[in-house]
């Protein structure tokens, strides 16, 4: 029995080490610094999504009505600023790009982003939005460090501007690799403002991936308070029960 437990533990530990090593092989990602309790950030992120992303990407598991309730917005706020397809308040967020056009422009339909952060993590999405650069060899003129040869053109270029790669030194016989990206032409935002904008957008997409997280964190406070109160009452009951026992 003991040998079996030791073998199971060794196997689990080996798998953990293998997973950790595999993660370490990937590029180091900057921290997105998202905060679902920051309602203003979520509102700004929603504004960015509906002005720059919804033309191609849907949120098929999210309803306009739910966005209004969770982000402290009125029906008029949402339908006036976020609804460009004539959808109803209770409808889900569906891109207005026809599937045939998407196939023609990108070679495949752009993915739904409802679960993007849940699948790849907020740090990955944030890094992706900050890693586009000009690439004359690409058919769309853009490339991305985090997702090389991505079929998506850079939708936020007017905000960030245009980045170009800076190549690192290469060993003889090796191809030079991109060492970093340099801002060639600044967009409408400063680098700090753009980083905040992509942080807000990532924050909104993280909320979209699990809207219940907002309620769960709110309920969590009350659950902790209940447990503290229950523990205190249990302590008083214990003292009362054992006071005559010596």
UniProtKB/TrEMBL annotation:
Subcellular location as annotated: Membrane
Top-level taxon: Bacteria
Segments traversing the membrane: 219-237
Cytochrome c domain mapped to chain residues: 40-212
The entry's keywords: Heme, Iron, Membrane, Metal-binding, Signal, Transmembrane, Transmembrane helix
Signal peptide (UniProt feature, chain positions): 1-24
Protein name: Cytochrome c1
Organism listed in the record: Dyella flava
